[in-house]
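Class, study these two lines:
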Amino acid sequence: MNISTSNDATSSVICTDYGSTTLKITSTLADGGNVTCTSDSAATASTTSTFGYQRLTSIKLSKPDTFIKTPGTKTVISTRFLKMTMDMKSNCADSDTKQSLISIEYFLNIINQICIGFTTIYMNWLCLSTGLTKTSLHAWLVTLGFSFLMAEAIMCHYKSNILTCNFPRATKTTIHWVLQVLGGGLGITGTLVKCIQKGFLIVTVHGKLGFAAFILCFISMISGLAALYSQKLKQFLSPLLNKTSHNLLGLITFVLALTAQYYGYETGFFVRKTTEDFRILMKFITLMTLILSSVGPLKSLYHKLMNVKKNYWPQKLLPPFRVILAGKENSSLRFSMFVIAVLFDLIRGKRDRYNIKTNVD
């Protein structure tokens, strides 16, 4: 590394230019000239060049047209170069890691779309070929409703969803509630058809899980309507709590519905019409759909819960409840007191106590 100059000057402020192959430092001299420091060992980066400003110890240039070779100057410049090089490498590593994770999520979403498509196409073929009566009608409706439409609905806001990633948020919201209404309607109808056929006699694991999904689907759709108009309802319920509860209910409903379908492959309808190996394959595909479709909603739920914790945790509760929560009581009592305190203030209309944000996604 060499530093060249043409006049006497003292440099104190430098501008670092992070280029693609070299790192150049330029300082303006007293008479308007420049001091240039160039290093060929600077880290290279494939990202867009950025500019940063750092302050170095003043360097006295005493002889024109010579190179500075003092040990102190070399130490200062070498230290700065090392720090900037390490920062650049760290930023590049973080960027590469994030990009790799995004690529993996896109790839897994493609796999998930294939699983959803395979299940939907196969169930349509099986049910339509056997005639839409009794169990085949039930299986056809719940597959279209829960496994296809609801799965796509809960992934609408997922950033790595290849089908909706380029749509604006308003469009994603519209697609979400349209698919959810259609999917929930078909799922509820399919479950109700089977319940009527069985006289509401539910004894199997498949039936119990399906009926639980049937009930929660009703509740989830009502909460979805409230979430859709969260800004208009903010005088009665915080949009944060509104959308968090809808996210949680929708996810639980989907998990129960897909788990019910998993056990549905053990019923007599599939045992008579498919082989054991194929049923194992369908179970595996259903589990893959359940896990991969839940990634986006789980990430969204996590961020919402962090906001709930930030806005509602003990330091923002009424003093008596803060004392209770700070004590040594068991965790169940502390959580119960926390919920009661929040509901108490919400009923009294004291939402401003919590500094609740209204522009929560």
About this structure: Residues 1-31, 38-77, 350-361 have pLDDT under 50 and may be disordered. Residues 49 and 237 are 46 Å apart (CA to CA). DSSP finds ten helices and five strands in the chain. The domain at 94-310 is CATH 1.20.120.1770 (Four Helix Bundle (Hemerythrin (Met), subunit A)).
